[in-house]
Amino acid sequence: MNIPPPDPAQQRPTNLPRRAVPFDDPLSPKCDTAPRIRITPRSAHADEHAQSPESASASLTVIATSAAHGIVRSSVSGVIDATTCGTFSAHLDEITAAAHPFVLDLTGVPFISVGGLNLIEALAHTTVRLDIRWALAAQYSLHRFLTLLNIDAHIPSFTTVDAALAHLMIALGRFRPPG
């Protein structure tokens, strides 16, 4: 059985670096889905049956409660993607319209899309413009994405709500050490 040699038109030149191959190369893999940023909590790494963002419910739970010294704690849980960005955006608008200092608690958000990251960046600019003090509490992976995308410059972010609240109370001059 004779196997014909491969067609030279279908082979990549071996002397070119990978980046030199044009995007319309028929041999390069295509990606037909929009890129997503998936934030996976450390506890989910051990669970092989963790729910994927695509199968997660398209609901977002937002609870605003009063924290210490007039600071509002806004807890968000669920997936922030294309189906919930509108709800998340409306909530951020309500927070900034109230003009109170707040902690945005995203520790219950296992996945955030690029649109959600854009909303957080817009929130940072809005709070600077309106002189509203705030802090972000989120999982480490979200902090990492904010750093990689250079969005973290004006965002005081922490991995726990308690640390974010303590920072905000110190920034507002309302912190009283015990004793």
Map the helices and strands.
Blueprint: H1 42-45, E1 60-66, E2 72-78, H2 85-98, E3 102-108, H3 114-130, E4 134-138, H4 140-148, E5 157-158, H5 161-172
Parallel strand pairs: 2-3, 3-4, 4-5
Antiparallel strand pairs: 1-2
Quick recap of the structure?
The chain is α/β, with parallel strands linked by helices. 31% of the residues lie in helices and 16% in strands.
Overview of the molecule:
By secondary structure, the protein is α/β, with parallel strands linked by helices. Helix content is 31%, strand content 16%. It has five helices and five strands. The protein has helices at residues 42-45, 85-98, 114-130, 140-148, 161-172; strands at residues 60-66, 72-78, 102-108, 134-138, 157-158. Helix 2 packs parallel to helix 3.
User: What is the SS-derived class?
Assistant: alpha/beta
By DSSP (H or I, 4+ residues per run), the number of helices equals 5
Distance between the termini: 89 Å
- Average pLDDT, rounded to a whole number, is 75
Shape: elongated
* Order of secondary-structure elements: HEEHEHEHEH
Strand content: 15-25%
Order of strands side by side in the largest beta sheet?
1-2-3-4-5
Helix amount: 25-40%
The total count of strands amounts to 5
Rg computed from alpha carbons, rounded to a whole number of angstroms: 22 Å
Biggest sheet record: 5 strands, mixed
Low-pLDDT segments, ≥5 res: 15-57
